[in-house]
């Protein structure tokens, strides 16, 4: 009896110790979501695998409407990108965001700057599409890239809206900073969390007319 119970007790103690240890190791972050350039919420203990606090401030333009939203949450540090990202996923569907990642309790309490938008067309184009409930989309319509968007992205996976999880696919223009995002990453945007299964980036092709004119200019 003793011989069989002891190892089990040992295992139980070890499991308990590990659980307590990982709880003690857990990070706490401010968690909130609101419209406007900042938000305020309570400090919450992160799930053990989430070892970073993040703040995302996004400015999105849909048609003529411009809105600013902020979210603060816990995420995996390896999935977290600190900096500016700009995407254009369709005509009149443009978003810029600033993100900040950190790894100390409550370190995302402060404010970060609202991203600066640059909606100047830069002459590049990418295939664009947006689809829900499926993980591919054809991108047969081109979209014009703006600012420093030099990459064509093709992202797909699962979007978690809080209530439901559904498949999504999207293609369009992005800054090269968007290409830091890896397959498998769970990325909180201002409104939803995206779990990426595909994260392709290719440089936007040079517009043919312009390239010809340029190379003609270089001929001595
Ligand atoms: C905005 O984007 C255009 C086109 O790429 C670029 O020429 C310009 O320098 C950018 N402006 C700023 C302030 O970055």
UniProtKB/TrEMBL annotation:
Organism: Sarcophilus harrisii
Sequence similarity: Belongs to the CNF-like-inhibitor family.
Segments forming domain UPAR/Ly6: 122-181
Keywords: Disulfide bond, Secreted, Signal
Keyword Signal found: yes
Principal subcellular localization: secreted
GO cellular component, as recorded: extracellular region; side of membrane
Endpoints of the signal sequence: 1-26
Protein name (database record): Phospholipase A2 inhibitor and LY6/PLAUR domain containing
Compartments reported by the entry: Secreted
Keyword RNA-binding in record: no
Phospholipase A2 inhibitor N-terminal domain location: 28-108
